[in-house]
Amino acid sequence: xxxxxxIVRLYFAPLSYPCGPQSSCxxxxxxxxxxxxxxxxxxxxxxxxxxxxxxxxxxxxxLGRDDAVLRLLRTFGQQAFPVFTLNGEVLSVGPPNVxxxxxxxxxxxxxxxxxx
Length: 116
What we know:
Layout: E1 7-12, H1 33-46, E2 51-56, H2 67-76, E3 83-86, E4 89-93, H3 98-109
Parallel strand pairs: 1-2
Antiparallel strand pairs: 1-3, 3-4
């Protein structure tokens, strides 16, 4: 019997400027492409065998797979993002402390070693 590959889903809201990029009233909202890419690469490099899917929450989400994230979106709006899940379980809401996030993922996956 083969084991399924752990799946991390990184739900993000693309970086936007609700009042315009030069506005000083509210600032930027969401995550930059660079942040999303760096989190994805970091997790995949530190946790061998883990698949990371980046999901843009401004696009339609899937009932069933994304129910917990849909609840967070309805409750907190885009301020909840980024959200990290592992096999459907929400592990982190908001900007992560990457070391803590990796430790939680390692514990859930049962990986005995995380590459330095």
